[in-house]
Amino acid sequence: MTNTAMRDHTTVVRTSRGLSIAGTRITLYSILDYVHAGWPAKLIRDRLNLTDQQITDALDYIATNQSEVEAEYQQVLRDAEEVRHYWEEQNRERLAAIAALPPKPEQAAIRAKLAAAKAKLNQQ
Prior knowledge:
It is a single chain. The chain is mainly α. The chain has helices spanning 3-8, 28-36, 41-48, 52-64, 66-100, 105-123, and strands spanning 12-15, 18-21. It has a two-stranded antiparallel sheet. The chain is elongated. The N and C termini lie far apart (60 Å).
């Protein structure tokens, strides 16, 4: 999209996070997550606490600039996957060590209640 077209569009703005809803921290990529999951506009609007005008403008912008927005969205997904993989690798040993620790004494009562509740459910 050209700079002139971006300036004419007041709801969708480019920020350091990418294409976003003006005055919010909500990106168009977040909206696309819901669109790709098949959510209707009204539910996306309610979930993200947007106005009718904001969701309409965002979806119109996405439709008008579909190839550009979709390309950026795919890059955001790749970047997020790289970050997730990095932190999984960084924390693998630490998480394994935590999992190997014995339960804390104060958790014993909670674990016993959970086990009893599961057993009761399995009997029903």
